[in-house]
Design goal:
The protein is an alpha+beta fold. It is 13% helix and 27% strand. It contains three helices and nine strands.
Length: 188
């Protein structure tokens, strides 16, 4: 039976088990997940936080991370400034990033998520520039896509948290903790 591990990746953690190109300057998954032979299904940048799914099943790993299978990924995004409806519409239609045009997404303004943990280090605040939280749901995962999308529509990302992948969420997972999903067989 396949194992499916849900991990709330803290800011600054590299999504691999060995230090690799970071030269050991950032913590890795090995420091949080003492389970052999599981690997991330997709990735999160070092400066992003939130849900990461790991599995010991290569086919399941591919299915979760491949956009052809259309597992939605929901992000909580704190941006600089207050996006207007035109910016939200642009995010929803797809954004031309120069090297690609993103697929349509879902985007809406939200209040700061309840129970949100403080980030270490904290984001930079500017006294005269407000911030706003968005919820963005994608069905693809290009390199630094959410950050590039929000910047392109004029609202740079300050903090990025992946809240959900498909039906799996961060619910009851503190940063740096993991749990095993009981229903891994149902995802196949």
């Amino acid at each position: 039976m396949s194992r499916l591990i849900l991990f709330n990746k803290p800011y600054g953690v590299v999504c691999q088990f060995s230090p690799g190109h970071t030269g050991g300057t950032h913590p890795t998954l090995k420091e949080f997940i003492p389970i052999p032979d599981v690997y991330p299904a997709g990735r999160l940048d070092t400066d992003s936080e939130g849900l990461l799914i790991l599995t010991d099943d290569g086919a399941l790993q591919q299915r979760i991370s491949d956009p052809r299978h259309k597992w939605p990924k929901t992000y909580w995004v704190q941006v600089e400034g207050i996006p207007d409806q035109a910016a939200l519409d642009q995010l929803e239609r797809g954004v031309d990033l120069g090297d690609c045009v993103t697929r349509p997404a879902q985007a809406k303004l939200i209040a700061e998520p309840p129970g949100l943990w403080p980030r270490n280090p904290p984001i930079r605040y500017r006294k005269n520039i407000p911030t706003q939280w968005l919820e963005i749901t994608l069905r693809e995962g290009k390199n630094r896509q959410v950050r590039r999308m929000t910047a392109k529509v004029g609202f740079p990302t300050l903090r990025l948290i992946r809240y959900a992948i498909g039906a799996y969420t961060l619910e009851n997972l503190a940063p740096g903790t993991w749990s095993e999903a009981a229903d891994a067989a149902q995802t196949q």
